[in-house]
Amino acid sequence: MSTASAAGPLLSVQDLGVTFGTADGPVRAVDGVSFDLTEGRTLGIVGESGSGKSVTAKALMNLLPSYAEVEGSITFGGRDLRALAAARERHFWGVELTMVFQDPMTSLNPVKRIGEQIAECLRVHLGRSRKVATAEALDLLERVGIPEPRKRLRQYPHELSGGLRQRVVIAMALACGPRLLIADEPTTALDVTVQKHILDLLDDLRRERAMSMILITHDLGVVKGRADDVMVMYGGRTMESAETPTLFGRMHHPYTRALLETIPRIDAPAHTRLVPIPGRPPSPAEVGRSCPFAARCRHRIDDCLDGVPPLVPVPVGAAGAEGAEDASHHSACIVSVGSDGRGDS
Amino acid sequence: MAGSGTDHLRDPAAHDDVVLRVEHLVQEFPAGRSGGRRQVVHAVSDVSLDVRRGETLGIVGESGCGKSTTARALVQLPPPTSGRVVLDPGAATEVEMVALSGSALRAVRPRMQMIFQDPISSLNPRRSVRDIVGEGLAIWSKASDGLHQQARVDEVLEAVGIDPEVAATRRPHQFSGGQCQRISIARAVVMDPEILICDEPVSALDVSVQAQILNLLEDMKERYGLTLVFISHDLSVVRNVSDRVAVMYLGKLCEVGDADALYERPAHPYTRVLLASAPEPAPTVDPSDADIGDEIPSPIDPPSGCRFRTRCPRATDRCASEEPVMRQVGDDHFVACHFPSI
Ligand SMILES: Nc1ncnc2c1ncn2[C@@H]1O[C@H](COP(=O)(O)OP(=O)(O)O)[C@@H](O)[C@H]1O
Ligand SMILES: Nc1ncnc2c1ncn2[C@@H]1O[C@H](COP(=O)(O)OP(=O)(O)O)[C@@H](O)[C@H]1O
Ligand code: SF4
Ligand code: SF4
Ligand SMILES: [Mg+2]
Ligand SMILES: [Mg+2]
User: Fold this and answer.
1) CATH of domain B113-232
2) In this predicted model, what pLDDT tens digit does every residue of B221-249 receive, in sequence order?
3) In A, which residues are within 8 Å of B275 by CB distance?
4) For B87, what's the count of Cα atoms within 13 Å in the CB-facing half-sphere?
5) Domain boundary assignment for chain B
């Protein structure tokens, strides 16, 4: 890890902004998002629907429609991705940088045999012969835990369960040996038992292949045990980001805290009263000039409506030296809220 | 077959407050022919359940295990292939729903109301929200007093947190998903049901809105004296709202019991799998409990004996030949397994 950080992060996103031009006017889906991803680590991006997670991922994957206006910079392995995209140098999307979507059918061709689809990636991107590609496809299916892989090579996607289809998509995403795999809610449509197995598989593969991963989810619980770093998004912006143990141990932002408190716990007795968050998540049309969470925040003060709070380092507080900051822990809240969840006021 | 029996039903002699009793419920759907043989989907196979007045019964299980089919069979949409659905069993007001048809069935319908996962599509897009909520009342109410009905509609709208004035002029699409679920709760509660059946009521909602609806259901239960049947695939949500929980797998019950007892001392291997697979696994199980195969057998040709045996880490020959029946393993705790963890 130390050598990787000495060489700089694998991925660096600075001030990413995405605005869609729509019939109802501009929609600001992502606003000023910055993060670094160190080689070999998993970054969890957590947020509710509409918070800008998928748009962020699509910006990295160069998959946004032409009516999306993108700002900011994306550097991957030292290369400027936006410049590469502008120059139509598409060769490394799908090779060094790949993505798994929530719905496996987004990536699968319904009328093509599974073996052919995986082999095609290998032939197109890596120039493998048909024979070699088919042999590698078989190995990949085996590696992602598909039973009877030889038989599956000849099957069509509709002959597989949702969980197996997602494994096939993971095999395709791995085919060219990516350095970064983006998994966007890869298990949201799957049952819990299958979900656990797929997340475990992704984790094993990341370790084994020394890949980096961005794991996108709406579920704080999913990232808790699996991500090295977490970034919490709301209303298109980053609310809080930290190494995972820091985030859960010294949660700072009122939204992160509210999210954790509002989710029923599997180990809490029946009828434990839940702490609701009033209102509903903002629509991107409402993204304005104040804290995105202000309308629902119980710590709000007048100043929260006056400008968008910047993402700033969180002081370590009483436990650390006076005034010390945790370089990895950032929060976009102008009100200092104690680590026990109560405001200092 | 995996998990039949009725030992978990409450003894009517000891409990005179059972409002709903389901016995040996079977629901089969035609599934075409194969090799000249008529095939059927065994969606629900010999499920027995009961609910006491004011209780919340949670039903949990993965998709396809028969939760929605069970819920719909309770309200006779459609009536089950076989089995009994009895309201007020043993009381003078006892009604056997399955035997009813026509006007007799319509007369008992208001007593059991349902809400669904997708609140927006379950509401008529062309009518005002106030009209939608009042619709059932206008059709069913014996008192044809319009003013009285309107007052009832407005009272219930306020109880679910929707302004009646606003509801009078707006249609469902002008409300958010969470508000639409409030509206569908109002539409059900306005009928003054004894039992509210909730089929995945928060599964389509954002987590920040989910708690609002779960708390609202608890409040409505208190305020209107409701009994709840609450269905979800989310184990944490089910524990939070339920007094008693039933775990289903492939059309059968695995385990039934007091919510806290079942989560603290899960006895059925499948319950343990579910608890160990949750994003944040329950501390009462071992992480390795989640290590099972992913392939769920087809409900057209379910496994003999215990239906869970093809994935169960504890399965033996006996599990293939003999169906486990519900037996008591704790105070209010029952399990259908030959080798429970207790
Ligand atoms: N192609 C598009 N055109 C217009 N708006 C879009 C488009 N894609 C996404 N959006 C909007 O951007 C916001 C963020 O979307 P998204 O990133 O998909 O959220 P999520 O966090 O659920 O993945 C949403 O409100 C969505 O409606
Ligand atoms: N009308 C129907 N015709 C045929 N099969 C059905 C029908 N309704 C449900 N099923 C099947 O019955 C099983 C149980 O379904 P369901 O009750 O919807 O499960 P759950 O609600 O637990 O996800 C599934 O295999 C489903 O495909
Ligand atoms: S900036 Fe203000 S409104 Fe926003 S989260 Fe902090 S306290 Fe709440
Ligand atoms: S031990 Fe046997 S009876 Fe019990 S769940 Fe497993 S297969 Fe079924
Ligand atoms: Mg998304
Ligand atoms: Mg269902």
Assistant:
1) 3.40.50.300
2) 999 999 999 999 999 999 999 999 999 99
3) 266
4) 20
5) 1-52+62-100+239-342, 113-232
